[in-house]
Protein 1
Amino acid sequence: MSVEIRTKGVKPLSNSFGHLQRRFGDKPATRYQEATYDIQSTANFHYKPLWDPAREMFDARRTAVMMKDWYQLKDPRQFYYGNYTTTRARQQDAIDRTLDFVEKRDLLRSLSQDIRERIVHTIVPLRHYEWGANTNSAHVSAYGYGTAITSPAMMNTADRLGMAQHISRIGLLVDGNSGDSLLAAQALWTGHADWQPLRREVERMFVTRDWFEVFVAQLLVADALVYPLFFQQIDAAIAGASGSALSSLSDALMRWYEETAKWIDAVIKTAAAESPENKALLSGWTVTWRNRLLPALVPIAQRALGNKAEDALAAAAAALDARAAKLGLTV
Amino acid sequence: MAAEGNAKPAKKLSLKENYALLTRGLGWEPSYEKKEDIFRYIHFEGVKIHDWDKWEDPFRLTMDAYWKYQGEKERKLYAIVDAFQQHNGQFNVTDARYVQALKVFINGITELEYDSHRGFNILAREFPGVGPRIAAQMQSLDELRHATTQIHTISQYAKYFTGMNEFPYQFDRVWYLSIPKSFFEDAVTSGPFEFIVAISFAFEYVLTNLAFMPWMSGAAFNGDMATVSFGFSAQSDEARHMTLGIEVIKFLLEQDPGNVPLVQKWIDKWFWRGYRLLSLLATMMDYMLPKRVMAWNEAWEIYYEQNGGALFADLARYGIKPPKRAPETIAEKGHVAHQMWSVFYANRDAVGFQMWLPSDEEMAWMSEKYPDTFDQYYRPRYEYWKAQEAAGTPFRNTTLPQLCQVCQWPCLFTESGDPTTLSLRESEYRGQTFHMCSDGCKDIFDDTPEKYVHAWLPVHQIYQGNCFLPGVDPTAPDFNPMVEALRYMGIKPGVDGGDFKGSADATNWEKWTSRPANIHEGAYTDAVRDTASPADVGARKAG
């Protein structure tokens, strides 16, 4: 547009919104800051929720954890909707190339029947674990307090659907798109003894009300045991017997897990440093859920790894303990 | 080479099959915990769902497709927003009055997107079916997108104009912003089925086009490329949301005949609630856009009377009737914009945007658009007020208006068929009297008084002394309750609101752009060199 406007020397009245100025001073804000800080309503709520009349619609009392400022729980990835979707879209392009590569060459279908059955038995049922994680993450974002934690939790909810669908695609690559592997995996998840202890704990998370406890149980503890166990240890065992076709697909899951861990760690570390009470709560939940989930993984680990299962689980548990200690928890 | 028994080529999947395989089987029947302990909120409203799998997914988007599709839209949108900011696009709009409409948007609408994000997030957790849960979580994410893109777009305006810098703070506190705030909080605090009927159907499906089309056309007409861009980018999301709205209604109505009266009650309620909220747009369309797109009554005829009429004719086979209070909206359509603008004008010292009386040119347009009402009822009022301004004794309210207990508008509306009598209704509940603006709002109150008595009515709260900042001493000799209440609301008295002429926005606009702050009134200051609007300048250059 050819409009002559004397804009040189026009000094803005302010460089950012008032709530950002009070936090960061009067300087240009990042898009993450604009989209995140102080966005959620905090005052003068009109009605008692029919589904929770003792509390407000947004209410910090839905967890026992207490923060003076819930916006301390920032996401080091600085995700807002725009850079979140464009990041995931770019990653998905790479994943799609791998899926295409594996599909065109029938890399999973051409594995021996024994290996294909191992994948269906030990990997594909995790699509249900991911759907459970989707439910749990949705719980965190639906009942959490402050955009800083709920917005990345919403993105994590979407991520978990994406992971469930990625794992489902592994199944379809094994079964030639018949869907038989997905039906088999669901039967395993709901009925086979190897999977029931884990499903039991996932369902226990579904009835856990404190959203921060759900955050710890699912995102800190369960994921820290499940991801390295299945997508490193069991994946490596399958690769040792059959080559790296599966690894090329589980690689995306591990990369996602490592990226997400940065956010989880920042949240836990900040919340634990806030007060001794928080630290005690978070430590207690970590220990409780570790002690539930570790034995829950034993049968499927033994099925997949035989006599190496104990070492694999011990390694995952040790890594979780070390990580928790680094975040300031006492486990 | 494929292993034995696995030699056939892999089956090609249609999109529908692919979606079904990747989605439908994800859920399972829990056995270690009771289903009603996992999904706790789906029973108390009385809706009966016999088979969640009967839900037809309207979008069939897998997550990877969502990321790619939305990511591409975001790349395009932010390229425009970046260019807008680099080129000071905020100065390309028609005049500084247009910016006052954006203040209403950022302060009153953006937080609604956020509340909507939360509402759908709750459904994404609480619905037992996989299909509806995924639909709800994608919409929740979309609503987060809308809040985010609005903030990112309007932040550029907020740097140069008053009254936009405290939107989250003001949304929770400013007296007239309780109209949108209470609307969405009413929906989110309802049960999940009422929420989805309220927002996905009554609001998104029946009423959103009304908000969307005039708003975005108005932005385009007035040179606001930033708002046009986020608006049109959001529209493709809205198309999905509207599809969800109609799917929800059909699903609920087909699952059990007992759902029909519940759905009808919610349609009646939320149609009226949504109408009252959106009629704020009437003032924007008729008064705040320097270049107007269409009049409110025309928009209501197209987007409700015609489109809505066809929709409800279609739903008649389920036993659904048009919204109970639709006739009142049609009777009011020639009045609401003028009545609302009058109340905002009278209370202009207590609002966060600046006000003006319509120019002669604008009044001529309104006479044409509202031949049955404007000259008879509203032109005399504006001419009287103009004379008062000219005489140096401008009219202003020094007290705050009585609010409706339900919609929280001031009780400013008139009786259907009698535009000189205010419409006032009352209900008794537990020995107290509650006031409503209309039969539509009284219906809502009388159905659930125990909910609406909790409404945080700002004017009541101000007069009860609950709206002062900490440390304010009401016994101090220089205590001014109105100034203190405005400070509590985050409104800078004499800066954010008041008269447009002489305001900081008008003065800065002329200084910065050399164009009049009000294209209908000529220059307010010596800074104006060129009285043409950008479009006229462009046309002249092209010619």
Protein 2
Amino acid sequence: MSLECTFTAGIGTLDLTVDLTVGDEIVAVLGPNGAGKTTLLRAVAGLHPIDTGRIAVDGAVLDEPASDVLVAPADRPIGVVFQDYLLFPFLTARENVAFGLRSRGIGKAEARRRADQWLDRVGLADRADARPGELSGGQAQRVALARAVVGDPRVLLLDEPLAALDARARSEIRRELRRHLTAAGGARVLVTHDPVDASVLADRVVVLEAGAVVQQGTMQEIALHPRSPYVADLVGLNLYRGTAAAGVVTLDGGGRIVVADRAVAGEVFASVHPRSVGLHAEAPAGSARNHFAGTVAEVDALGDRVRVRIEGTVAIVAEITSAAARELGLAPGRAVVASVKATEVGIYPA
Amino acid sequence: MALASLGVLLFALPLLGLLQRAAWSDLWSDLSAPAARDALRLSIECSLWATLLSVVLGVPLAWVLARGEFPGRALLRALVLLPLVLPPVVGGVALLYAFGRNNGLVGPWLYDTFGVQLTFSKTGVILAETFVAMPFLVLTVEGGLRAIDTRYEDAAATLGAGRWTVFRRVTLRFLAPSLAAGAALAWARALGEFGATITFAGNIAGRTQTTPLAVYLLLETDPGPAVAMSLVLLAVSVVVLVALRDHLFRGRR
């Protein structure tokens, strides 16, 4: 089972360019609002026109403007769980699940039987006669999932499946969704702006920014080696881009960072974990090879730690204990020096 | 406050006038007088046909106005809504010069080809009533269509529903309240139609003399049935108003 999509599509002023193959796996498309994530799903489902390229499932072309192939959404072997679930409010849970079977010509009794089977599988056998308005967010999500998979689609698409839920219910429902997604099989693509959703639910993550794929891999790989400020911010790393030569990275934005690895050369990303950044009132005489002078721009308390954003030639975020922050008298506007050991700088080709 | 009270009186006094004039004990016999009976029967028949025609033609029209993307849409909407503000008698005159048998735009052709004469016929009454009533339906249904979250239609499409199934099982279900409201408004308007009907279809007892026409005519000679029929029309209006109060005054409480 595989979904291949290589296409471009316009959304307002944004050009979406996608080159993605999904096998028998769960792929998360992670990106900020307005990156084109939903449009990607809509294009695959046949709800948004593509300009060039093709979309195919198991080798059967669904959309290819160059050869005038366009399969209507109703005829695609694709199930969709929409954002907000979009359960038909005038139908019961059972009727919602049976909708797709009925519109594909399956008899009433058989559609009902299969709908009940799926409701049972997602643990909602006793809610079959409830209207969507009477369901909790988590229950509505499971009905939407059952509705999308009851027709055995070869591709399952989910648009922000957890965004409509409150934070308390989320982690429990997330684990449960993971279980159902794993059981469903086939090519499964979910769109999310939450890295936790992506890492819990997906085997592989594709990062989409401003209409383009900027990075793919497992969430661990992505977290370790972010390739854009957005991803670095998501995983909480300081990220710099520059040119490496003989153990020194000259940053594109000005300044330089000494690194331990002298072999890497050329265009690189350098990453620094906030916890490996030390802060001092004045330049210390220690072993740290990197000293960045700057001023405190922001101080954020996180329990017994504080995150300190420092502006200067090399902007950096440091995470220190609140006791240390008190001793240093950290407040916005205070001049400080940040230190980073060369061995704490991650470096990888851009 | 004083002006507002005056305004209330302006609406309330005529109503009281009509009600105090009513001969409640004779109501039934007044309504079953031949002239009244024929007029009422014709009115109900023609207004129901006009409502049906408004739905059959008006829903697609509302669809085009709400969902279509083409130049001149605003102009089309203006054309469709014109009968709302046009004096009905002018509408009747216009209909006459379109469908009149001798001097109409397409009237002579209709008569020569199909032998159909619209003027001074029951069909003419239906046409005149549809002309004035359909804008109410189009306006209401267009509003209803615009209020639908089209993502539900997308969801239905991904569940294997073709365009017709999507329309029938999703769009129409969301649209039902607006459609019912629009049809009720159109029906009430058709039932009360006077100017366009009398101008276009004439005032032939038993054939084109609808209730409002009969009321007007009988008022001079036999006010009993006239008042009785007025009460029927008033009752219908009140029923429609009550039935639609949620739809018409949504969010005003």
